[in-house]
Every structure is written in C-alpha cells, then in structure tokens.
Automatic annotation (TrEMBL):
Gene Ontology molecular function: iron-sulfur cluster binding; metal ion binding; oxidoreductase activity
Annotated protein name in UniProt: His-Xaa-Ser system radical SAM maturase HxsB
Cofactor: [4Fe-4S] cluster
Keyword Nucleotide-binding: no
Family membership noted in the UniProt record: Belongs to the radical SAM superfamily. Anaerobic sulfatase-maturating enzyme family.
CDD domains for the chain: Radical_SAM
Organism: Puia dinghuensis
Keyword Metal-binding: yes
Amino acid sequence: MAEADVITKNRKFKELGFYDNQENNVYFLLPMRFARLNQEKEVLVNEVGDHLVVREGTFQKIVQRELNKEDDPDLFGDLVANHFISESRIPPLIDVLATRYRTKKAFLNNFTMLHIFVMSLRCEHTCHYCQVSRVTQDKDKFDMSRDHIDKGIDMMLQSPSPHVTMEFQGGEALLAFDNIKYAVERVHLLAGLRNKSVTFVICTNLALVNEEILLYCKEHEILISSSLDGPAFIHNSNRTRPGRNSYELAIKGIELSKRILGPSRVSALMTTTNLSLDYPIEIVEEYYKQGFRNMFLRPISPYGFAVRNERKNKYETDRFLEFYKKALGRILEYNLAGEFFTEDYATIILRKMLTPFPVGYVDLNSPTGCITNVIAFNYDGSIFASDESRMLAEMKDFTFQLGHLDTHSYEEVFYSKRALEIVSTGINESLPGCSDCAFQPYCGADPIQNHATQGDMYGYRPTSSFCQKNMEIIRYLIELMDKDKAIAKIFESWVKSRS
Ligand code: SF4
C-alpha cells in the first residue's frame, strides 16, 4: 500500500471542558454502550443492563450533546429515568444504580453451588457426539470409588453456599446407582451438621430406569435430567445403543418418571447435531407432544468426541442460528395460540434484560461460572473447573484440572494460581471486544470454550462462535420485542414464571 493511501484517524480526546459540560450545561453522560439492531433502529444499554430501543443515529446525537429536552421531551425523559444521562454531575439516584449493579452480581455471593460427581464413565450408549462414552464392564477402572465420593462430599460441604446442588453424571450415572444411593445417604448424614441444604439431580439417558430407582428418587427428592433430541429418527440416529431403541426407552422412562415423581421434577435436554438442523419444527413439536412446556435449544459442545466426528457435528454457527430462530418461532406460535411454552436459553437472557435479579447460569456469567458456580469431580478423583473441562481432559488436555481429591485441600483447589488465572480471564467487562460490546450485561465469558476452539483462554471475538451465537440471539430477542408487542408480552411472561 502506498504511503499516501494510509488514512490516519485522529481520535484525540477533546478538551476537558467538553466533558465537563460547562459550556452547554445540558446533561451529563452515564456509562452506556450501543449496538445497531437493523437499518432503522439501535439499542442503548446501560451498566446494569437496562435497554432502550431508539432511532438510528440517536447515540451519536446523545454523545455530541445534540439532544434537546424541549425538542424531544419523551426521549430525554426516558434517558434520564433509565440512567443513560443525568441532569446533574452526580445523578441523584446513583446509590440506587450501585445497589442494582451489586444485585446483578449477587450470584457471586455464595460462591460454588453446583457440584458435579461423575459417578461412572461407563455407558451402554455410544452417542456419536458424546464426549465421554465408554462401553465397558470394568467398574473398578471407570466408576468413582467410595473413598473419592466421601472426599468429594467433604469438599462440597465446605462451600460457603448454604445451598448446594449435587449432580450425578456419567457416562450413564444409573450404572452406578448403588454408589448414588451411598452418596445420597452420606450427604443426609453430614449436610445438617454443616447447615447445608442439598438438591440432588441425576443426569441419565433413562434406558436403565425402573420403578424401584424412581421410588428411591421420590423418597429422597432427587430430580431427573434426561435427554431428548427430537423425534425417533433424530434421537435414535444421534444416540446409538444396541437395539437402536434409545428413543423408545427415553420416552418410556420420561413417562414413568413423570408419573412417579411429578412432571415438574423431570426435565429433558436436546443437543443439536447436523441432522437436527433440518428439523427445528419437528423437534419442537416432539417436545410439545411429550408434554414438555419448556425446552433448551442447545448447540453441540465443542469438546471431546463431539469435535472428532466433524462431518456430523461441525456446522457453522450461522446454521445453528437459522435453526434456533425457526424453532423459537414455532415455540412462539404455541404461545400466540394460548399455550405457555418457553425456550430456556432465551428466558435466561431475557431475565438478564428485563429484571433486576442476578442470573446464575454458568455459561452466561461474568465472572465466568466455572469454579465460581460449578466444579466437577471426575470418576478417578481428579477435580476440574467445569464439566466441559473434564471433557477436554478426555482429549488429553488437562489445562483446567485444579487438583485431585486425594492430594488437594479445598483452599488448594479454589484459591490456586490456576483457578485465579481461569476466573480472571473470564470477565467480559475487561475482555477485548466484550468490554465495549452493548450486549455485555446479557452475555458471559467462557475461557474453556475459548481455549478449546481458539487456543487461548482470552479468545478472539471476531471469529468466536460463542460470541457470534450470543450476539445474534440477543440482538434478535430485542428486535422481536420491539417489532411485536404480543411477543414482548410473551417474553415477559416467560421471565415472570422463573422469578
Ligand atoms: S462474547 Fe460477543 S456478544 Fe458477548 S459480550 Fe463479548 S463481544 Fe459481546
């Protein structure tokens, strides 16, 4: 490039008086960011996540002090009331704003709540996207020992949180049901002594579930989290097992679980594979048919065996977004016809947008939810920053291993240099690209996904699938609410149902 072609942009700060606002003493700016929604509209977002959809060009007018109270009293009033600008140097309600900021971050108050116990790596399924599947009878090698269960419970009960969740995972956790019973009974003995309440969850494909297991779950108030990828032709293709009857067993198991435990104690998760991408409507309708009135539209996690099977699983984020919008559209149709049916990912984001409450969803937290919200004890006693980190370890990447139950104390795990490094790279307020992104209060940071897909924990937003997905879903939700008041009302009802 010739030297003359190089355009140097001058972005020097203006004189102090410009910011001091002495000359035109009209209004003061408060911290805010903006993003273009479409050709006509842009959205302003303040530090606590309040948003205002305005005409394109408004942000520029605001910062250039071209906004006039007399010319546009409604807009001016909205901007003052929602803490985008202030008529005095220190806004009279600054303490309220500070309290609201603290409230939004209150998910940090109690530190780690979710404790994942990988009870067994064994599984009778061989799902092609599974990170950890092991078809083996070798209990000794691939089941968590009782010694490690004891040590994991001891570490869990040291959490500062008065309420913790113990989630049993696999492989297929029900292959180690005797050990689950042992763990539940040990927690019952010890939790009261440490003033803890404990929620139990078993994650299972339900192939092995029976009445006896479910009656035990009912007695001990254990929740069931299962998997349903869609109609039989999708589910059975994604989730392979001898007999090719994963779908039939899952449906039978869901029905039995709902009958014995009650519908609200049974949930299902779907994973979007390449095959799923062509069937958004069919997948939503399958959930509806099975009596679910919520679902979570999840892309595949870029870990473990999932990324080894590229042909089936490595699709572009654009294709997932197209799938997501079609599926969300079908869910909204049910709502517009008078049904109450929610999409969980949208609901989490909407709760961040439309309520003052904290949202402790691991993947959309800043600071990152790994370690601060979740910890995983692997079947062999190794301790990881999250479930995804132990999946990375299955690929021989031990970057997020924090220690081992045999050798490390609570302090050595949670206050280690490694833990500090992981959490400090997971703060989107200070990450390049995120720090000036309008959607920052609704989004999160995921150092583990950054590391797995981009080679370092900080990540690079322009090519990040995590960023692309969140940015477009957040933009789309705001646009939908702005365009259609009926949809805005539906979204409000989703948020209220979780409040
Ligand atoms: S990841 Fe992307 S969408 Fe999320 S805050 Fe960062 S830049 Fe914004």
